[in-house]
Every structure is written in C-alpha cells, then in structure tokens.
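Hi everyone, sorry if this is the wrong subforum. Our group has a chain we'd like a structural model of before ordering constructs, and none of us has done structure prediction before. Sequence below.
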Amino acid sequence: MTNRGFTILELLVVLILLSVVGALSLPALQRGFPSILLRAAVLDVQNAARHARNQAVIRQKVYVLTLDRERGAVILEDEDGKERKSFSLREGIRIASVKVEGREAGAVASLYFYPNGSATESLVTVEGSQGRKLEVQVESMTGLAYIRSLKAT
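Answer:
Right subforum, don't worry. Here is the predicted structure as tokens:
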C-alpha cells in the first residue's frame, strides 16, 4: 500500500502551528496599523496641496486649500467656488496645528495656491492615535509640498 496523503494528526499539527504563529504575529501587525493610517492621511494632505498647485498653474487661477481642524476636513476649491473637492481624515487622525506664514492659524486655515506656482507658506501637523506626528510643509516660492517626520511628544 502506498502513502498518498496526510493523516488527520499531521493536518491538526499544521493547523495548530499556524494558529500559534498567527496569534503571536497579530499584536505586531496591530501596532503598525495606526502608523499606516497616519502616513496615508499625511499623503492625502500632501496630494491635495500638490493638486491645488497643479490646478492653479494649469487653469491660471487661484486655488484655496482649506483645513478645518475641528471637523478634520480638507477642502479644495477654485477662487470662484465652482470647483470643489473635499475629504475627511480617518477616525483617530487629526490636524494638530496649522501655521500659515509662520503664525499659528485658528480652527480653519486657508492655503492659497497661485497661477505662477507659488503658494502661502504653511506647515500642517497631522497627529495619529498614538501621538506620532508628521508634517506637510508647503514652500511659498515653489508651492511644493513635502512631508517631514516629527517625534511623539
């Protein structure tokens, strides 16, 4: 008689080993998840700023990126208010602060992007659920947006 398969005992041992490995690795995966959500939110803000700059240059009109800290909303619109796009940050992610031209802005801050490619100099700090912070910096001369990492406080 030839042996063509696995016994029930062998299958049970493999299932138990997979369960143990999964149970041990799950906490490590959960610790990294908030970090991934923070990075995604910061990329969303950076992409909104880049899109605002690109649209301002292409369409030759001013675009405004509004950051509503209380609602966690990011709103992009043209100077006429005709084109409008918005999104909200995920739960556990918040806009911790916004500095516009070196000064702390209030609950609602507006960043302007101009047809010549320049923008309002700004620094947007986004905070995750574990206290980790990342910043999106918009340069005034070029209107380009960059991500900077910060230490948790």
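For your construct planning: Residues 8-59 form the longest helix (52 residues). Residues 33-150 form a domain with the minor pseudopilin epsh fold fold (CATH 3.55.40.10).
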